[in-house]
Structure formats: structure tokens, C-alpha cells
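A reminder before we start the practical. When you read a complex entry, don't treat the lines as separate problems. The point of joint prediction is that each chain is placed relative to the others, so the output describes one connected object in space. Small molecules and nucleic acid strands, if listed, are placed in the same frame. In the example below there are two entries. Take a minute to note the order of the lines before looking further.
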Amino acid sequence: MSTLCVPSQVPSVAEDCEQLRKAFAGWGTNEGLIISILGHRNAAQRKLIRQVYAETYGEDLLKVLDKELTSDFERVVKLWTLDPAERDAFLANEAIKKWTSSNKVLVEIACARSPKELLLAREAYHACFKRSLEEDVAYHTSGDFRKLLVPLVSSYRYGGDDVNLTLAKTEAKLLHQKISEKAYSCDDIIRILTTRSKAQINATLNQYKNEFGSDINKNLKADPKDEFLALLRATIKCLVCPEQYFAKVLRLSINKLGTEEGALTRVVATRAEVDMKVIKDAYQKRSSVPLEQAIAKDTSGDYEKMLLTLIGHGPE
Amino acid sequence: MSTLCVPSQVPSVAEDCEQLRKAFAGWGTNEGLIISILGHRNAAQRKLIRQVYAETYGEDLLKVLDKELTSDFERVVKLWTLDPAERDAFLANEAIKKWTSSNKVLVEIACARSPKELLLAREAYHACFKRSLEEDVAYHTSGDFRKLLVPLVSSYRYGGDDVNLTLAKTEAKLLHQKISEKAYSCDDIIRILTTRSKAQINATLNQYKNEFGSDINKNLKADPKDEFLALLRATIKCLVCPEQYFAKVLRLSINKLGTEEGALTRVVATRAEVDMKVIKDAYQKRSSVPLEQAIAKDTSGDYEKMLLTLIGHGPE
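Here is the predicted structure of the whole assembly.
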């Protein structure tokens, strides 16, 4: 479900590094060459390129990109080049440092990754920041937000498909009861959403729909301006239908007066290699415009080229 | 700091398996032979023995031990034979199923292991029980106990030695303030104890002592019968001085009218390969009797032999 196009004949890592070195050399930077290389390599290949580049030229490729590129193009290339776990650690740290109650990045990292991927992000966080992810989240948040976010980022959910249907029924009722009481941040709702496996939560929410006739997220919209409710809805969507969640983030970021590059860049860089094909389908279905067309209309230059490359509609 | 004695010339795994098979054969079981093998092999060697035993005889060694051995001797041999991560998963599950507020096993597993070891225990828990550790803890506990235990078992603390002294001073003050207010289960106390690295917590507690002239655990003894306070004290001891914590558990379990085998067995099986030498020193210093002497006085038979073997005073 990745939209990344890796050529059938990939040049050697040494060649890739040499070409990148050329792209940075002299006056001006050859952005097209950078896109044609990094935009067509998978995570393992990019990791190797970074490693060999550092060994060959004694410089961290990330730092060189930092120096040579600017603005939105710089951000998408850098995010993309990072190893997925390191990228999550970086995005999480950024989100924590400038945390606002409307920020959904921590929820994405905690819920739209596999349990193992979240663990790798936490490991990368240790290595990059000499602290733990949950430590920083707990320190910089408070109240209901802390109550939800700390267990979310600390979770190591069971990853199997086993489902306990009796439990699903009981917990669907419990969720419904607590939501009816508007006890949105009660221990039970938090416990279920932060500890149960994705398969189990999916079963519970199906039971919820069967028994009470509506989607749980509809019932979590009592006050559309309530940021905590918005975070709960994002948690649920990232756990059970991440593609739809990300399609919506794209829709909102592109439809804004002036595209919101932050979200657009983040979603493309984090999902291209995961489920971007499905996200594109979901986007087109809901917006009646193909994603590549929407992006081409709202962005320009090398930034546009890199985004289109990553979603599978690059110049080559 | 391990008390395990592995002979300089270890027989091949196949030989060990053959000898074990012999020990189980016919009428009666040769307990001495079992002790002489399993009691003198490290975790990696025992793992290999289990693997080769299953391949050779088509039976899980653990199940055979279950069938052939009885009571306290059975339990210590089985706990010891388990891989450390699996053993922790097993002990944690047992503690959750028969959870009482005085049970400290979850705290031991969450705090007296390295961050990586706790992670491996959580992985083993997935594999053994098809659920996550934090999921079961959250489901089976409540109130203040849940508030402390869930983040404790979910933590993946930073494992480095880096310490922020300014933060240590601030958080020492914060802890003191909250303890003075008797707000023992407040968000701040829980956050600091469940997310900070062991090195950072150690620095904070040193600041606490310097600034306020007493050990934090002294101040957490307002009501000696309060089980939550006891759990907080155990948390702190397991984080900063696990050897003293375990020496005390041994002291209490041996001094009871009738030794409390549960705790004695658990401590010996989980610490023999870790820090039993230091625990023995701490025990002797405080009890004026060597641990081996206390164990020999209070236990008997094969159980006694196995315990003494694991703490380095076996028959051979």
C-alpha cells in the first residue's frame, strides 16, 4: 500500500552518495537530483545512504540537507530521509516542546503505528534526547490531556488478532454508559482506549455500533470545539481506521486558505511508505479530486515535486 | 554479583538433556541430579537445554518438571528454569490474577529490572497470554493502586546516567510539598516515580535528603498500615536500592513463624543470577546471620539444597 517507486535497478549506495555530493557541490543545489535519488529509495536504502555518506565524506547527510535546502522542501526531504523511528522521535519531541491541546501528532505516533513501531520510536527518543518519551509527555502536559496521552505513548499493545467477544460487549456498554454521563475522561474510557489491542478495540466499537446504533465518534461530538473530545476521536480513528484519519488531515490542510504545509508534509513523509495508496483512495472518494491534483494546485516548485514523487506521481 | 556457580567444564547440552531424562526415568525422581545440572547453568544454557530437550524427547522440560516434582522444590526449579523474561511474565500474571493491595511483585518487575528487561517481560507477556501486561494490570486493579501500577509497568525509562541537577532540586521540593500535604497519590508524585530515569530519581532523592534532612521513605510512613504507602516505599527501594529491598523481603519471609516460601523462592530464583551476592551481604549485615545459615535453618530437603545451590552454597 506504499506509493514509493523504487527503480528495479537501484544504483549502488556509493553511486547514490556520489550523486548526492554532486547535487550539493558548487553554487546552487541540484534539487531535482536530490529528489530523483532520495525520493525513490526505501527506508533501508536511505539508512544505508546516510551511513555510507557519513563514512565517505565525514558529514551527516541530515546536516548537509539542513544547510543546502530551505523551507517546506527542506522539511519534507529531511523528514523523509530520517529513519521512521527517528522521525517519530523527532516529531514527538517537536510536538511536546510546542504542545497545544489541538496537537494530534502524539496521538498519530502512539496509535497509527504498530505496537512494535511505537516501541522503536521510544527507543530512538532515548537515543536522541536522553529522556523517555512518556517522561517528556507527562512533564509538559496536564489534566485530562496528560491522563490520555501518557498511557497512549507508553502502551505496548498486544498485536495479535485474538478477540474476546464477551469482553467487547461488556466494554461497549461501559463506553456507552460513560459517554452518556459525559464522563469522557473517566478511568474506564482511558483504560480501554489506551490498553486494549487494536483488534479488541475494533470488536468493541463494532459492538457499540450494533447495540447503540451509532458510531462512537458521533457520540463524542457533543461539543465540536472541545479539544479533548477531538483528541479522543483522533485516538479512535488512528487506532481503527488510520487511512481515513490521514485523508481527513490532508483534506483539512489543503482546503485551508493557504495550504497548511506542516500537516501535509508530515502525512506524506510518514505515510508514503505505509498506506498512502489507501489514503489517496479515501481522499479522492471524499473530495472528488485526486490527491495529486489537489497537491499540484496548492503547492509549487521542488516542494510540490517531492510530494508528488512520494505519493507516486513524480516527474519520472 | 551473581551467586550462580557454573563449572568451568560444562557438559554438552545433549549430555545435560540425557542426564535430566535419566533423573526422571523409572520409579522416583533423582532430585540431586536435577539440582546438579539446572542449579549450575546460566540463563542462556538453561534456555538451550529446554530447546534441545524438546527437540530430542518431544516434551517441554517445564511440563516434565511439573509432573515429576512437588511443592516448594517444584516451584523453585520451575521458576529458575524459565527464561528471565518469561519468568517475569509468569510471576506478573500470577500476581494480577490473585491481586491484593499488599502484593509487591508487580513493583519488583517494573522497578527492579532494567528498562530493557521490563520490555522483554512485556513481550513475553504478549506471547504467553495474548494480552498486554498493562492491559491486565489496568483491568484488575483500581483507584490509587491502578494509578501507580499501570504507568509503572508501562514505563520504558531512559537507561543512561545523565542527570539534570536543577530538575532534581525542583522535583525534590515538589515531592516534599506533596508529601507534606499527604497528597501521596497526586499526579506529580506518580509522574516523577513512574517516568524519570533511575539515575534522575536517585539524584532527586539525594536532594530530598540534603534539603529536608530525612529519607523520603521515612516521610512515607505516616500510617504503617497503609498499603498504598507501602507500595510507594517499595517502588522507591526497588528503583534506587533493590539489593536492600530484596534483603528485607528475605528477612521478613524467613523470620515469619514458618518461612514464607513464596517470597523466599521468588527472590532466590529472580536474583541469583543478578545481584544475590550483594543481597547476601545486606542480609547478613542487618540480620547478623549469614543468609545460607538462615535458609538452612528454616527449610529442608531438596528445596533447601536447591536454594543453597543458587545462592552459592550448594552441596558440591
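Discuss with your neighbour: The mean pLDDT of chain A is 95. What might explain this?
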